Amino acid sequence: MHDAFTAAMEQWVREGIPANPRAWLISAGRFKGIDSIRRNARFQHAAATDQTDGDVHINPIDQLAAETIDPAEQIDNGVEDDELRLIFTCCHPALSPDARIALTLREVCGLTTEEIARAFLTTPTTIAQRIVRAKAKIREARIPYQVPSHSDLPDRLDGVLHVIYLVFNEGYSASEGESLTRADLSGEAIRLGRLLIELLPDRHASSPGGAEPEAIGLLALMLLQESRRAARATTNGDLILLEDQDRALWNREQISEGLEMVERALRSRRFGPYTVQSAIAAVHAEALSASATDWAQIVALYDLLLRMEPSPVIELNRAVALAMRDGPKSGLEIIDGILGRGDLHDYHLAHSARAELCRRLGRSDEARESYQRALALAKLEPERRFLERRLRELP
Amino acid sequence: MKYLFLVYGEERRIGAMTDDECMKYDHALRQGGKCLASEALQSIQTATTIRVRNGKVSITDGPFAETKEQLAGFYLVDAEDLSEAVEIAAKIPPAQVGSIEIRPIRELLSTKGEKRYI
After folding, report:
1. CB < 8 Å to A93, chain B
2. In this structure, is residue B68 part of a structural domain?
3. C-alpha to C-alpha distance for A233 and A179, rounded to whole angstroms
4. B99 is a domain residue
5. What does the CA dihedral B10, B16, B18, B21 come to, rounded to 10 degrees?
6. What is the pLDDT of residues A225-260, one digit of tens each?
7. Tens digit of pLDDT for each residue in A24-63?
8. Domain total for chain B?
9. Which CATH architecture has domain A309-395?
10. Helix orientation angle between A295-308 and A312-326, rounded to the nearest 10 degrees
11. Which residues of A touch B (CB under 8 A)?
């Protein structure tokens, strides 16, 4: 495989990254490193099932060779590393965030330009152009096709996780338009998350214990959020708040896998913000109803999250949890504090949370004002319908 | 006295020119011993910006000098790839307070496909 990489590097420096570097590498490896490949029937099997552009012959002599010669574990690692290289290259911080997403969906997930365009409510031309530009940059600026060095790995992994989470969120809650969820993208993100954990073996981890805890935490978070998909909207696409959801509709399989992942990440003691968010989702997943939720635990987790990653949005979420623990008044004070500082002024959820707490306190006029402000800022149709309904229901 | 010349222009208009003229002028300057170094740059789309704050290196896409940041110097380096370039750039002292824009060099090519002879 090494020869193939050398050849690939040379060719890519000259001509740029091919449309499907992984398939290209596998086929290049097939021709250039044919001897090494013969040593490993397992690899041939992987190539035969993975690749789309050619045929791989597994003849009895090759299989015999595979049994008699050293299993050449490193070739297997070579294929996995190749996937990892591809992911890290597509998610390189020197590419724009939009380009990273498009490139990852195209090259790692194998989505077509049309599919990506549809998912992001844009034209195939725009996506194609984004991908062409990103590839030109990879070529011209010589972004290396490699797994980052040990010291760079945590930061670069953060970048990859961020791309995966952006894809997930785009699928989970579209930023505009009619549809509330675009399941395909969330499914792709979960698939990517799994792939990443599979590909990040011990030797790439910053300490022993398998894949990075945050990669596991992110997968847990996505699974737990995804588990509520069937319950978060009515059949006509109206939004259902967490507290009103029919929890029997939550996907138990995803929940139990998610919970297991949360525990695995927490046990590592090296976890970060994704894991803490997944722990919050886990507390919800374990509760039989909104009122039976361990809100004290959720507030404590938000405190931890705020220390890791101070942000007004997390403060807002903590305020909502606090309102559930101590009553609406205490949550409202904090939200007013955030808005009073001038933060989140244009964030519709800050106003709708304020409206909700005012409504519970029977302060209808204030609630109306805040719902209206939220409505003026909300772009998603189901959210707008929800806010309109709330406005109508106010006394 | 040494002077640094910075060449500005709309990429669309500069891209429409052939390299021949540039190569000719460059050659003449070098013959006269006046030119110490000269290079053309790849498109702005290939730019990467490095900043170091509190010892942490941040890498972003694009040329993101803030309007209050002024050009203060330059390095012309030979690096294996963008990783090495970033590593070198991050050690430039002003990276801690300002930003380093990394631009890959573009090789001039005559219309006949000849490279520049230096």
Report:
1. 58-61
2. yes
3. 10
4. yes
5. -50
6. 999 988 988 888 788 889 899 999 999 999 999 999
7. 444 333 333 333 333 333 333 333 333 333 333 333 334 4
8. 1
9. Alpha Horseshoe (1.25)
10. 160
11. 93-97, 99, 133, 136-137, 140-144, 146, 148-149, 155
